[in-house]
Design goal:
Strand content: 5-15%
Largest sheet: 6 strands, mixed
Structural class: alpha/beta
Keywords: Cell membrane, Kinase, Membrane, Phosphoprotein, Phosphotransferase system, Sugar transport, Transferase, Transmembrane, Transmembrane helix, Transport
Number of helices: 22
Main location: membrane
Organism: Buttiauxella selenatireducens
Pfam families: PTS_EIIA_2 (PF00359), PTS_EIIC (PF02378), PTS_IIB (PF02302)
Subcellular location: Cell inner membrane
Length: 636
């Protein structure tokens, strides 16, 4: 804690009477000490974190915290409220001690490390009582910065009574994880046991037990509200509970574990959270799991395709193509593999996050079917939207299927045969016999609609084509428009291709620009910033799929922005009367001479890109401002 806490950041008597007032008062201390540059922005970031899970704990402690771009230097604020403040703690009691952690936006793990340090202090006997009785800032500072003594530091002292293993992890992977770990360590030491606790936090898994340690362990306490691997503890005495149970009574849990029956692996209990989170939170975490696994495939596939088209592409009547047998054609083929796999990977790992390994195979297969319209007689697959639907359906179906208590003879077959086969047949039937026919009919209807509109007002057709192009970024709607424009090229009509060609790169380039601009406002994280670089490269060569990771992560902000920006570009394409005889899009076509008016083509693209970036930032900013409403209630 040295260097993070100072006298100026300690308040022994908070004036606040409500939660939002606590945030403002403590943030003001940070601002006065020069640690943050914007109070309102930092408070909004604290509320963003609070929305993922309340940071009020039993025993009167609350630890609000945030990573924020307005933090200049990491710091901890200590606030004490003698009368107590209703904070929403699990025990229903008022909170008296508030520890606010401010971490710079680019310090990815710093606030977690600080939380781990705080946890070791808060769990010490008598610490809270001494803190509440402190009469000076110097006294509080000394409490937090004093070095732990050997007899109180359970990490240093070993006992010879035996070995207790622990596993902790909360859904967010922050404070509860480390508080529970400290509680298990302290209780085991007091009981005379050597102890090692694995923490499954947001910075990854730390201190995992080795095979030798598991073999000699007397008991295992698994205090988790998230998925962890329990197979490794087969044949050991194991107690499984929620993470908060360890904070409340670690000693009792260790006693239960020492007398528990030997753990047996079953498909219904393996790697299963001890308690459930809200359905909305579970849905979001499952989606983010699929997106995180999909991103490398998007980047690898997209950049290889972009490289091959940029260096080996030749404009032809059928579009931008690479000569067969050339080196760049082989590079293109490898890139196509990556792009082909990204949709099944998204679907598969969404299902995996929900149902664990039994859901992976049917999730992957379901994503492949969703993206291949030939399975249900459609002209195009459902793209990333269909993959999300397939992953969720498979995940929850397999999860439901594996929760039954099967006989001992059947149980071993459930995770490796019964659940995967049933899940695969289930999702295949859904797409072939339920979803498939409406999709095929929709594709036909869209073609007819475009044909009817093509003889009318060019602004109307431009809006429709642009909205479809931006909706799913290379998915079925975009493919319908693309094939419609390609068909008109064969009839000598190249204006429709010209309008669409300037709309194709808008989504990836627009989201790349939004990520670069919005990062300093805290609207995009480091991973999205890096994704923006890949999206920019893909957009330059007309690969609209580069925006998919952004859309999958935040569809309600990204998809509308992409649609409007693409519509702007497409309408300008018609207004400028752009003609393109190459069935492709993006700035690369300008360089290759595919447009009859190259400068106006770039203007149309730029207008669409700026529109998408502006709208995406505005929508994300609006979401952030909604979270600020709590912070400004004290003004009313």
């Amino acid at each position: 804690m040295n260097g993070l806490l100072s006298k100026e950041l300690i308040c022994l008597n908070l004036n606040a009477r409500e939660k939002h007032q606590v945030f403002h008062e403590m943030a003001e201390l940070l601002w006065q000490a020069g640690h943050i540059t914007d109070i309102s922005q930092f408070v909004a970031d604290v509320w963003d974190r609070e929305d993922t899970g309340n940071t009020g704990f039993e025993g009167g402690v609350a630890i609000p915290h945030a990573k924020s771009p307005v933090v200049k230097q990491a710091a901890v604020v200590v606030g004490i409220s003698p009368q107590g403040i209703e904070y929403g703690a699990e025990d229903g009691k008022p909170s008296h001690v508030f520890l606010m952690i401010a971490s710079p936006h680019n310090a990815s793990n710093l606030h977690i490390e600080i939380l781990a340090q705080l946890s070791s202090r808060l769990i010490e006997d008598g610490f809270m009582e001494t803190l509440l009785q402190a009469t000076s800032q110097e006294e509080v500072l000394a409490l937090f910065t004093a070095q732990a003594t050997p007899e109180n530091d359970s990490r240093e002292v070993r006992q010879d009574k035996g070995l207790i293993l622990g596993v902790t992890g909360c859904p967010v992977g922050v404070a509860h994880t480390y508080l529970a770990a400290e509680a298990i360590v302290k209780a085991a030491r007091e009981m005379g046991y050597e102890v090692k606790v694995e923490t499954n936090g947001s910075i990854g898994v730390k201190d995992s037990p080795t095979a030798e340690e598991i073999a000699r362990a007397d008991a295992v306490v698994v205090a988790c509200d998230k998925q962890v691997d329990l197979d490794r503890f087969a044949g050991k005495k194991v107690v499984i509970c929620g993470v908060k149970s360890a904070i409340k009574g670690a000693t009792g849990l260790i006693e239960q574990a020492l007398s528990a029956p030997l753990y047996q692996v079953t498909s219904s209990s393996k790697a299963k959270p001890a308690s459930t989170t809200s359905s909305g939170s579970m849905l979001y975490k499952s989606l983010m799991n699929g997106v995180s696994y999909m991103i490398p495939f998007v980047v690898v596939g997209g950049l290889l395709i972009a490289l091959s088209l940029a260096l080996g592409g030749v404009p032809t009547e059928q579009g931008l193509s690479i000569p067969a047998g050339s080196l760049w054609n082989k590079v293109l083929s490898v890139g196509v593999v990556g792009f082909t796999l990204m949709i099944p990977i998204l679907s598969g790992y969404i299902a995996y996050a929900i149902a664990d390994r039994p859901g992976l195979a049917p999730g992957l297969i379901g994503g492949w079917i969703a993206n291949n319209g030939s399975f249900y007689d459609a002209s195009a697959g459902t793209g990333f939207i269909g993959a999300i639907v397939a992953g969720l359906l498979v995940g929850y179906f397999v999860k439901w299927l594996t929760h039954f208590n099967y006989s001992k003879m059947v149980q071993p077959l459930v995770p490796i045969m019964i659940a995967p086969i049933a899940g695969t047949l289930f999702i295949a039937a859904i797409f072939m016999f339920v979803i498939g026919a409406p999709i095929a009919d929709l594709m036909t209807a869209l073609n007819h609609m475009l044909a009817n509109l093509s003889t009318g007002n060019v602004i109307v057709i431009g809006i429709v084509m642009g909205l479809m192009q931006g909706f799913d970024m290379g998915g079925p709607f975009g493919k319908v428009v693309f094939m419609f424009s390609v068909g008109l090229i064969a009839q000598g009509q190249t204006q429709f291709m010209g309008a669409q060609a300037v709309a194709i790169p808008v989504a990836p380039l627009g989201m790349a620009l939004a990520a670069f601009m919005g990062r300093r406002f805290g609207l995009f994280d480091d991973e999205e910033y890096e994704n923006g670089k890949a999206a920019a490269a893909m957009g330059l060569v007309g690969i609209s799929e580069g925006a998919i990771p952004f859309a999958a992560r935040d569809p309600f902000a990204v998809i509308p922005a992409n649609m409007i920006g693409s519509a702007v570009a497409c309408c300008l394409g018609f207004i400028f009367s752009l003609h393109c005889n190459v069935a492709h899009g993006g700035p690369i076509i300008v360089l290759l001479g595919g447009f009859d008016k190259p400068l106006l083509a770039l203007v149309a693209m730029a207008a669409g890109v700026v529109s998408t970036a502006t709208i995406a930032i505005a929508l994300k900013r609006f979401k952030m401002m909604r979270n600020r409403q709590h912070a400004v209630m004290d003004v009313a």
